[in-house]
Amino acid sequence: MHAYPLEVNGKTHQVTSYRDTSLLLVLRNELQLNGPKYGCGLGECGACTVLIEGVAARSCVIPAYGVRQRAITTLEGLGTRDALHPVQQAFIEAQAAQCGYCLNGMIMTTAALLRAHPCPDDQQIRAALSGNLCRCGTHQEILCAVRRAITLCLQQTEAAP
């Protein structure tokens, strides 16, 4: 077991885990962050997606110890109840959830996409989200949410001093 600092959502936490313990397990079990979900455990479904230095990453296949010196953002750190991130707001407004299990991955992947490409076209959106599995069939609402998020992000950028 190793004790080490882990920067999550802008705060440094002292955690203890084996070198090969997944970031997902540390986030959920040690830090009590339930945004990232356990889906497949193979990095294929997207339910466990977090941002590492702003890039979407599958936390179920990344050892926490390996990212101990990098900034990690979970769904809980993207925005707050009082100040939602534009992507979170867009997903609410578009009612882009049914069971909600895929939402963490969809939202975090969208946030990373819009950070890298503020105005993606439909092909870029579909490509970015293609690795996130949704069994409920809310794909159209999710695409509408991403398009709404683009608008909200642009409005927020224009309003910034």
UniProtKB/TrEMBL annotation:
Gene3D superfamilies the UniProt entry points to: 3.10.20.30, [2Fe-2S]-binding domain
Q: Which UniProt keywords apply?
A: 2Fe-2S, Iron, Iron-sulfur, Metal-binding, Oxidoreductase
Looking up InterPro entries in the UniProt record yields: 2Fe-2S-bd, 2Fe-2S-bd_dom_sf, 2Fe-2S_ferredoxin-like_sf, 2Fe-2S_ferredoxin-type, 2Fe2S_fd_BS, Beta-grasp_dom_sf, Diverse_Oxidoreductases
Q: Does the keyword Membrane apply?
A: no
**Entry's Gene Ontology molecular function annotations:** 2 iron, 2 sulfur cluster binding; metal ion binding; oxidoreductase activity
Q: Which domain of life is it from?
A: Bacteria
This chain belongs to the protein called Ferredoxin
Species assigned in the record? Pantoea wallisii
Organismal lineage: Bacteria, Pseudomonadati, Pseudomonadota, Gammaproteobacteria, Enterobacterales
